[in-house]
Amino acid sequence: MATFLEEVNEKISGVPIQRCYHCRKCTAGCPLSFAMEYNPNRIIKMIQMGKRDEVLNSSTIWLCVSCETCITRCPNEVDIARLMDALRQMAIESGVGAGEKNILKFHEAFLSSVKLWGRINEPLMMMQYKLKSGDLFSDMAMGIDMFKKGKLPLLPPRTKDIKTVKKVFEKTKHS
Predict the structure, then answer these.
(1) Using CB atoms within 10 A of its CB, is residue 146 exposed (0-12), middle (13-18) or buried (19+)?
(2) Of 158, 84, 151, 81, which is closest to residue 114 (Cα–Cα)?
(3) Fold for domain 4-93?
(4) pLDDT for 24-47, tens place per residue?
(5) Angle at 139 between CA 133 and CA 141, to 5 degrees
(6) In 47-78, which positions are buried (b, 16+ CB within 10 angstroms) versus exposed (e)?
(7) Would you say the C-alpha torsion 32, 82, 56, 27 has a positive or negative sign?
(8) Where are the domain boundaries for CATH 1.10.1060.10 in the chain?
(9) What integer is the mean pLDDT of 112-129?
(10) What is the DSSP letter of 134?
């Protein structure tokens, strides 16, 4: 039976998490580390130690915004954003609920938008998220202001090669 580290490595082939020597540069640059249950460096250590349940049940994997500040700071090119995405997918496949309220609904709305448009369509993605979460009006004023300022186009340009995007979703088994 594969160890948790081997399982993660297989899921994220190409991300050399064994190279991490815990310099904590990823954590120092992470804009959300203050809100995380475990900092990015600690998640890697927990994977190396085989703490599958603690990692997959952690709110940390759901709070990562994939800004990629971590990989730009990492001297060993450990792609933590990609790692967190793989961990979220592993948590979903394992039946583990998201550690943060409504974050799984946001994740699903995000992926649905990318699958449909080949990129994010913010207004439609947020509408889908709001309907799924039931939180319809909490930030409506901000959304209207953003629309008025031209920050939220109604229809984004479609990706030229939408077939390739769809193939990625098929290969990765995202519905």
Answers:
(1) middle
(2) 158
(3) Fumarate Reductase Iron-sulfur Protein; Chain B, domain 2 (1.10.1060)
(4) 999 999 999 999 999 999 999 999
(5) 145
(6) bbeebbebbbbbebbbbbeeeebbbebbeeeb
(7) negative
(8) 4-93
(9) 84
(10) S
**Residue that has been written with the tokens 């077939």 in this structure:** 163
Q: Is the pLDDT of residue 175 over 70?
A: no
29/52 Cα distance (integer angstroms): 25
Percent of the chain topping pLDDT 70: 95
Residue 51, pLDDT > 90, answer yes
pLDDT of residue 150: 84
Alpha-carbon distance of 63 to 78, in angstroms, equals 18
Write out the H or E segment, with its range, that includes residue 108.
helix 103-117
14, two tokens: 């190409």
Whole-angstrom CA distances from 144 to 115, 134, 155 are 25, 18, 16
3-state secondary structure of 65: coil
Residue 13 has a pLDDT of 66
Residue 32 sits at the vertex; the CA angle it makes with 11 and 110, to the nearest 5 degrees, is 55
Q: Kindly report the length of the chain.
A: 175
CA 12/CA 33 separation, integer angstroms: 22
Rounded CA-CA distance 5/50 in Å is 6
